[in-house]
Model the fold of this input.
Amino acid sequence: MSGISATSARVVADGKFFRLEGKRFFVKGVTYGPFAPNAENEMFASREQTAADFRQIRELGANLLRIYYVPPAWFLDLAREHGLKVLVDIPWPKHLCFLDSDESQQVARDAVREAVRATCGDSAIFAYSVVNEISAEIVRWSGVARVERFIESLIDEAKQIDPGCLCTFTSFPPTEYLQPRNIDFVCFNVYLHQPAALEAYLARLQTLAHAKPLLLAEFGMDSFREGEAEKSQFLSWQIETAFRSGVAGTVVFSYTDDWYRGGFQIEDWAFGLTTRERKPKRSFDAVREKYTVASWFPLARTLRVSIVVATYNGARTLKACLESLSALHYPDYEVILVDDGSTDATPEIAAAFPRVRYIHQPNRGLSVARNTGIAAATGEVVAFTDDDCRADEDWLYYLICDLLRGGFVGVGGHNFLPPEDSAVAAAVALSPGGPAHVMLTDSEAEHIPGCNMAFYKWALDEIGGFDPIFRKAGDDVDICWRLQQRGYRIGFSPGGFVWHYRRSTIKAYLKQQAGYGEAEFLLGQRHPEHFNSFGGGTWRGRIYTAARSALVVRPSVIYHGLFGSAPFQRLYAAQPALPLMLATSLGYHSFILLPLIILSFYLDFVLPLTIVASALPIAICVLAAVQADLPPGKRRLRPLIALLFFLQPIVRGWARLKSRLNIRSAMSRTIVGDAFDVSEPSTRSVCYWSDGRADRCLVLGSLLAQLEQSGCPAKPDTGWATYDAEIVGNGWSRLLLTTATEDLDQGRKSFRCRLQSTWSLRARILFWAVALTLSIVVLSFSADLPEVWMLPMLLVILHWYLEEERQALAHTTVRLLDQAAAAHALIKL
Done:
């Protein structure tokens, strides 16, 4: 992994980790000092002692020193000579209420400038921490947003002097809510003495870090109070737990018991790996053992993995994908490329990778292609990525590590925008509708995106693989929900990430969103319990993506504890205002904005309302673009992001609507030849007789299965309803089915069914919106235009159509109920 040889190169951030001279650089560090002032009045040991310390630190296997004062030039020369990188904590009076004083703020800025100028461009510098552990009381006093902005300003000061430097600030649990936007990596001091607590908190920190590396910058134990044996065991499992959790590195506190602070030599603690005289302790050997292995700690089991890549005309990015999969740091895996009828250069590209198993088939869609890969897989685990992804070299290691540790049947990870991708792709990554993971907890997911997921093969076989109905998208959501319906859990691996190229043109992005819209409708048919009355998906978990799914209009809430004294002060981020985004939907433009525009040509008093209604979606999209987390060099993309926020829901909504119209035709064919009475009541009863062998729950199960096959989705009772199932039509009607069993003589039973069909909420809103609009038009123009009285006929037609839909649903349900009853030997009465 990362060696300890002298180098003139600088470390750079690379996804969730760091890279040095093209190789992965895992931080394996110790804190160093501060010491009593030396002969030059520097807070460092003498040059001779420092050189001796560095030789010993190399024996430890460490490659980084964290220091708390700005180092002199000779210190960095020695560090470079010994192959050590230096993380510099820049000291300034952060223990004061610094935001109350312009002078204190200036002192901090001057300290950062002087530190960076003194060491600018030195290859021994790993990064600058512009502040270390601001008191939670000070943050609460000054205000979270003000403190964050000030930290960001300090980082800007450093970047102006040395644009290529890495910058961070060092936080700790009482201020975990501080989230400056321009840090290069997340840096935390954490002292937790229980394995489960540390593992859970690291998962929490990985959630906060999202796309940035996480550095465990300070942890340790006191030999005086805990004992050296306990400390050795503690540091050993802490280091291993941290690296298995996908952190970019660890820094043990501290190298030596020699520690000088506040003008005094500290005598009553012993956190060091060596004594004050630099004699190695037992914990020194424990850390050396772990740093020798880190970060590649052996897996509990090395599972064979089959990586399946389904491609259709993906030649543009396929080569980079296969190259990355050929260079994974994992001992036992195969790559299966399923060509789903490509007409581009895919076969030629595949031929250049002889170790890749190439399977060609006619174009049958994404799910079928993935099922083909599953059938050909020889691995115990089947992993999936896309042809427009580039896997990180340690991708499989972290996926399998978390799959084994968490007791999951599947696991997924991040998908990041590659730094070399286009400007349009950067805008697309921050626009709605992109691949995202949905988290139930910090380690358990409700959904993982299809470009980065892995499952046990037996679990995929148990549920029959991917549903072939999903040709373009939606298969990953469906597979996750079906596994969870069986009681299985899906995990998330922060260290197992892929680079995902986004759509590079607006046309390609909108085409993708249209495909997502079609898939969303199909998901609504398969999983109606996960969708609301307007056809929108509802998630139990929280969506995590670089793009905001909607405007955030409420501030986040922070738990500070009594008098601001809680040791863990957590930020609860405000949920996006999804209802507000309805003003950007296709339905809003069709049923609200368009009628208002038409009316404004005839009614002057409607014009102001029309202007407000027209401005509302534009304002929402502009504000969403303003909230987009763009790096400084790409802020010119905000107008494009605003445009994509405006177009995306229209395109996606139209695709859903077209799919719904197609499914309506299919439902009509299901009941063809059966007439139904337009005066049919909304509530009807059906009764069946049995000799006592039939089971009501089995009959209901058969009915739900037949409803799904006929394209008529149903939401079964979850235990809280007063009915057995809600059957949803094509969006305009719903039916509540309630059943009961009556015990008759001689063991016989009657099976009674009550069907209550109504218009859906969407149908009611449409009907009354049309009624209101027509009323306004008729009342406004009846005097001058008598023909306007014909318009109410449109309302009659709409009423007839909605009633037809309601009755068609009832009729279809009765027909399928008859079939389910007959399959269980029930006789209709």
